[in-house]
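Feature request, filed as a ticket because there's no other form

It would be nice if the structure record came with a short human-readable summary line next to the tokens. Right now we just get the raw output. Example of a typical job, pasted below so the devs can see what we mean:
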Amino acid sequence: MHVNFEYRMKKNVFLTLLAAALLTGCTNEFAQIYKSTDTSYKYECAKQYFAMGKFNQASMLLQDVVIAQKGRGAAQESLYMLALADYNNRDYESASQTFKKYFQSYPKGDYAEQAAFYIGQSLYESVPEPRLDQTPTVGAITAYQNFIDYFPDSKLREVAQKRLFDLQDNLVQKELLSAKLYYNLGGYFGNINANTESNYEACIITAQNALKTYPYTTKREDFSVLIMKSKYYLAKNSSEEKKVERYRDAEDECYGFLNEFPESKEAKTAQDFIEKCKTITKD
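Raw output as currently delivered:
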């Protein structure tokens, strides 16, 4: 047992030293390649690193190659490969910018279609959750739409279209979260928008604008529920001179909701609201 343990220990130490030596050798080798002024040599090494999945090293070499190759034969391929290396290295912001640069430089180039697609794909990979700033989402939607416009017959069109719908759902979800926040704040006055007199009104405006922008969203009922409830509670919390008019508006909204969503789980709520509104508006 002692001998076997000692043997395993020696073997592990040997393997560790071997790995360290190989790593040092690879590091020294890359440093020599990186310092080289021979662009063609760098380019060939970059392709080898790319093929081995060493995208960080490939990217570092290609950044120099792209500058040196500008206007030369390998310029297209080196620029596209740099974008792919950054994409595979999960540096999506750099990848998107480089794919965009390729497409702008070579709109009819060998990789124009793929580059146009990957502008959006790179942004898609960096899209944040709906609660956060959706600037990358808007950028990805624009990029995918541009791709579809430029290459309507592309085999990648279906994927781009699906991605586009997914991204739009992200924007819808953000608007829904905003509307829900206003509704949940209700009569609290600390978060009222300067253009509204209550959070209920802010909820109504946010939800209505979302439905105008995304009329076919699958969240249409959710927005409609928020509008209906907010109009009722807005009326309930209004001053006497505005009460009757707002209850009538809430009543109309409830009827409209029942017409559009007769099977909704909130149908009973709408009916209850109508009865309560009628007690105010019947006179």
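Something like this underneath would help us a lot:
The CA atoms of residues 99 and 115 lie 5 Å apart.
The first helix runs from residue 2 to 35.
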